[in-house]
Amino acid sequence: MTSVARTFFTRVGVEGWSRLSLAEQCVLPLKDRRVVDWLLVTGRVRPSPDYLVACRPYLGEVAAHHHSAFHARFTAASADLGFQRIVTRLQWSALAKVAALGGVSPEQLTATGIQAGRDALVAAIARHRPDSHGRRRSAPPCSARRPPCSTSACSIPHTARPTGTAPPRELRRGRRRRLDWRPP
Fold it and tell me: CA torsion sign, 138 to 141 to 142 to 147?
């Protein structure tokens, strides 16, 4: 039995995928797109912003497995800030897409890289989904001034929040992202 990846590399290959039109890239079978997702997350292929918006790859899910240690620190920091799990998952997915655009791992992103990736994705959303709420809600992961879970922030060990010290209501719902809030 031949693996899905081996079949993809034999039939399409990295160079072949890069030469495909956007429509052809989007209609590849799911099993082939999962191989492409892995290539994107590992930095072996750099996608266009249009591919990330039009084809909706599962980069967050793949990046969570491939960068598991950083993903654990990211989710712990997000939980400490009081974000809901869905907000954390969406922010991680956005971070994975921005990292793929830059050809780096999520941990290597800088504030400049996040902003450049965000701008490229917002422009692609405007082209492919002009009526989408994504243009209005495409905030950079956590903050444009500070990369999410930067090395210094993630090196702080995760500690449980004391009982009764829940973050303010607007932080729990993910409405505001004040990174300076800490439990008393």
Answer: negative
